[in-house]
């Protein structure tokens, strides 16, 4: 369990760094994600080809993974849209809504009983986001994108939790991101009609950032996250990802001096979100300790 939590939090830190890269890359958010998925698929094909680990899946399994890939593409486009139409800090904090969506969607998708504590903690995080929204109405469009990003973020681990039992993590990542790339390719002309792009091709610096984004912050991060999900629940994973704003915000202060753009409402909302994260971690650790005690009693 300790290894799983370490993998999860390293993945969260790297996920926070993707927000910085999203701000540095000058491409429109949809084009940024299109190139990210393309580069990632190519890198995975090369790595898995050298290792001879490319696995052919059935049509049914492939279509399932393409569907998850569409969810990932949706999440990423909304996430980078939030950053570009607001700030890195605001975009990251909006991801905290994923705990609320997971508390509702996980019981519906997996046909399990809704946990009241998870729903209440998710609502607590949403209150924090509302406070930030109320104080930063100039970022309304970015916040809407951020909420949509959180919706996509909440669905992805729920679906992957089931698929991990059937497929290795890298096989999942390859098929999902390749499928997401194909879905986004079909949707891209429509999206760009409504959200215009200044340029359709990455500059030389953009290419460098995209390579880091695809290799370190996607391939490596996905491996970490999917391996952690074998031991940790989807809700705990999503709520723990609320720490992503902390890492990303610290980096945004360093790279972009965003502290000057934020007022007290942002920090009040952030503290409420952090409270939700801490309470869930304490709840998870308490449940684990109780399970261990029961196991020891059963053994004696």
Note the topology.
Elements: H1 2-24, H2 29-50, H3 59-85, H4 88-94, H5 98-110, H6 116-135, H7 140-163, H8 169-194, H9 204-229, H10 234-240, H11 244-256, H12 264-299
Helix pairs in contact: 1-9, 1-11, 2-3, 2-8, 2-9, 3-4, 3-7, 3-8, 4-7, 4-11, 5-6, 5-7, 5-10, 6-12, 7-10
Describe this structure in words.
There is one protein chain. The chain has one domain (2-299). The mean pLDDT is 84. The relative contact order is 0.20. With 300 residues, the chain is an all-alpha fold. The protein has helices at residues 2-24, 29-50, 59-85, 88-94, 98-110, 116-135, 140-163, 169-194, 204-229, 234-240, 244-256, 264-299. The longest helix has 36 residues, at 264-299. It has 12 helices and no strands. The chain is globular and about 65 Å long. Helix 7 packs antiparallel against helix 10 (234-240).
Short characterization:
This protein is mainly α and 300 residues long.
Rounded to an integer, what's the Rg over CA atoms?
19 Å
Query: What is the number of helical segments per DSSP (H or I, 4+ residues)?
Result: 12
Number of strands: 0
Biggest sheet layout: none
What oligomeric state do the depicted chains represent?
single chain
Give the termini separation.
23 Å
Q: What structural class results from the helix and strand content?
A: mainly alpha
Helix content: over 70%
The overall average pLDDT, rounded, is 84
Dominant shape: globular
Order of helices and strands: HHHHHHHHHHHH
Strand content: under 5%
Number of domains: 1
């Amino acid at each position: 369990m300790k290894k799983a939590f370490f993998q999860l939090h390293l993945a969260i830190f790297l996920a926070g760094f993707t927000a910085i890269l999203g701000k540095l890359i000058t491409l429109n958010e949809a084009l940024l994600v299109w190139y990210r998925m393309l580069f990632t698929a190519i890198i995975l094909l090369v790595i898995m080809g050298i290792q001879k680990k490319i696995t052919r899946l059935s049509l049914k399994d492939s279509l399932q993974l393409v569907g998850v890939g569409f969810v990932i593409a949706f999440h990423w486009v909304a996430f980078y849209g939030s950053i570009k139409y607001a700030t890195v800090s605001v975009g990251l904090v909006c991801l905290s809504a994923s705990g609320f969506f997971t508390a509702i969607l996980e019981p519906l998708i997996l046909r399990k009983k809704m946990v009241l504590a998870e729903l209440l903690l998710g609502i607590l995080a949403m209150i924090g986001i509302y406070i930030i929204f109320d104080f930063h109405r100039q970022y309304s469009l970015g916040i809407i994108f951020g909420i949509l990003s959180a919706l996509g973020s909440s669905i992805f681990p729920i679906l992957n939790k089931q698929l991990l039992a059937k497929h290795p993590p890298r096989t999942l990542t390859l098929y999902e991101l390749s499928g997401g790339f194909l879905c986004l390719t079909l949707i891209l002309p429509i999206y760009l009609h409504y959200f215009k792009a200044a340029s359709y091709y990455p500059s030389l610096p953009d290419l460098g950032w995209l390579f880091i984004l695809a290799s370190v912050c996607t391939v490596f991060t996905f491996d970490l996250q999917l391996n952690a999900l074998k031991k940790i629940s989807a809700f705990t994973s999503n709520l723990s990802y609320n720490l992503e704003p902390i890492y990303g915000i610290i980096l945004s202060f360093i790279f972009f001096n965003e502290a000057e753009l934020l007022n007290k409402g942002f920090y009040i909302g952030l503290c409420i979100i952090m409270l939700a994260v801490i309470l869930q971690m304490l709840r998870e650790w308490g449940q684990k300790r109780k399970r261990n005690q029961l196991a020891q009693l059963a053994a004696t």
